[in-house]
Every structure is written in C-alpha cells, then in structure tokens.
Amino acid sequence: MADTGHELAADCSRCFGICCVAPAFAASADFAIDKPAGRPCPNLGPDSRCGIHRDLRQRGFPGCTVFDCFGAGQHLAQGTFGGRDWREDPATARRMFDSFAVMRPLHELLWYLTEALALTPAGPLRDDLAAALAQTARLTEGTPDELLAVDVDAQRDRVNRLLSQASEQARAGRSGVDRRGAVLIGADLRRAGLSGANLRGACLIGADLRGVDLGAADLTGADLRGADLRGADLGRCLFVHQSQLDAARGDQRTVLPPRLRRPAHWSLAITPARSPADASSGGRSSGGRSSAGRPPHGRSAGRRRR
Q: Does the predicted model carry a pTM greater than 0.90?
C-alpha cells in the first residue's frame, strides 16, 4: 500500500468519541436505540470509551462494531482541532461534528486511492491516481472552515472515475460478469461465477457466497451484511475493507487478503435460518446475520475499540 502520510486506520485512543456523538442513528438491527446527530451515545463514557464495547453485538449495537472512520477521527481530534476535546470546549463541538462529516469520506477516498495505486502499474493512470491522492490529502489538511467548504460529492465523483478505471485495468482479460449496483439480497450465488466480477455497490445482504471464488472481483461499496462467506476465496479480490468483512459471516476456511484480519465473531457457530416448518411450530433459531455500516460513503454510526 502506498504511503499517503495519513493514518488510514482508526485509533480510538487518540480521538474523543466523535463517531459516538456526531452521526445520528435509528433503532434497527444495527442499533438498539434512536440517537439524534450531535448527542452522545448513552454508552459513551467520560473517558471517550464505549462502556459496552465487549458486548456490543449482544446488546444490540452490531452497527458500532463494523464502523470504520479510516483514521478520520484522530486526524480531526489531534490535527484539525489541535487536541481540544469537544466536552471541554463546547464552542468547537458543532464545528467538529460537522467537520467529521467531511473528513471521514475524504479519508475513505484516501484508502481507496492507496489501494488503487498498489495494483496499478506505472503509466498515465497511475500518475492520475497519485495526483488525486495528493489532492485529496491536501483537502484533509484544511481548517474547519476550509473543510466545511469542500464539495465532497464532487471529489468523490472525480476519484470514483479513476477507481473504476483502475478496477477495469486490474480485471482486464477476465470474463467477469458486471453486477454493479445489483440487488442480490439473500441470493444463492454459489454457482454464479464471480471471479473477476464487477460488484461495485452491489447489495449482497444475506447472500449465499459459500465456497465462491471472488478472485479479482471488485467489491467497492458492496453491502455484505449477513453475507455467508464460509469457504469463499477473497484472497485476491479488489477494494474490500475490514468493515465489510466484519459485517459478513465466515469461518476458518474463508481465504482473506493478507492485510485483513479474520473477524472474531466468525469463530462463533452459525445457526441456520429457521425453515417455514420451524416457524409454524414455534421453534426459535437465529439466522446468524450480522449487521454493518453502509457501503463506502454511507452514513452509519458507531465506533470500534481495539
């Protein structure tokens, strides 16, 4: 991975729980309660640590376990705002929270551009990617006022065009299917032939991907919440990040890219979803679905403690 000069992984010890305060979240499978934007989660302690971190899934907050700020939190806290805690300086709280809504997607773009550089050989496209990386990094170094003036959607569009080109180049020569944005909720994809596929933005919630070869498949923004990856090969897939895996289900046979870790909850037994016969007889079973933050550039909330 190329060196951006930016940390692209969350370090909660150097943040002030910004992602537990700034975003809103609604009571759902992801979050047990409603929380408006700008209000601290009731589980956030005065030390900026989550009081139920070890039990988030069991307590109904799986969305928190899969959120990734890509290092935006500590950059904002320690860099942009010079270590000023929003609790001690309430006047800066609103600007800090508003700035987080800009800094986080910019850091995410840095992560994708860094990935793209790592798989793109020397040439014009690589030069364009490097220029976009440097320009995006400059945007993150602005003052709060400069950050709030950034047109995030326009920057995202410019970067995504380059990322799409990098993906096409990396997948050249493969006969992968194009399923961009496809809605494949609960689909059985075990025989779909997804090696080299374009799955950018695909909705794969609860999809059956057991044993599937996803080599060179582009998973940018694919929603893998509850997707069954047991025995799947993701070792050479493109643009998959840790929070996507944290949202899915897998096992020890699932092949992962070297830079990603196997989620701890994958070691837990997965109970098959109950059948109609079970339902009619009143039996209880868990489908084993884990929830996640949304695809890249989404609006999910929460924070993960290491």
A: no
